[in-house]
Amino acid sequence: MDDKQKMFHDFVMNLVQPGKEEEAEAILTESFGKQDEGTMESANVEDVINQLTPLLRPEGVQDLEKAAAGFKAEQGHEDDTTFDDELLEVTTRLPRPESMEDLSAGA
User: Of 5, 50, 78, 99, which is most buried by a Cβ count within 10 Å?
Assistant: First the structure.
């Protein structure tokens, strides 16, 4: 997992409903594999978002959609600044759990 994938992974996992972490992890692992293979397309991004959406806490859906829009806009470009800025903007607004126990407890 590269740095951007790790950042996105952590972002998404912070939005996932308690008990849905394994499902989200599997979806992310598959999508990162496609990215690594160079086979990730805009349609795949929509599929990933559609698969992840029911696993998220309601307040996280809009943040994920915004981050995905930034990714799709930048896909295939050398400069990923817009995607990084969009993801940074939404991640800085998220509450931070004090520990992994807080995260797994849905805090």
Answer: 5
String of DSSP letters for 27-94: HHHHHHHHHHHT---HHHHHHHHHHHGGGB-GGGHHHHHHHHHHHHHHTT-S--HHHHHHHHHHHHTS
pTM for the full predicted model:
0.64
Residue 69 has which token pair? Answer: 């829009």
DSSP lists the bridge partners of residue 73 as none
CA-CA distance, 27 to 33, in Å (whole number)? 10
In a domain, 103, yes or no: no
Residue 80 maps to a domain: yes
Q: How many CB atoms lie within 10 A of CB 77?
A: 10
Residues in the chain: 107
The total number of structural domains that make up the chain: 1
pLDDT per position as a tens digit, 18-46: 999 999 999 999 988 888 888 877 677 78
The residue range of the domain holding 21 is: 3-95
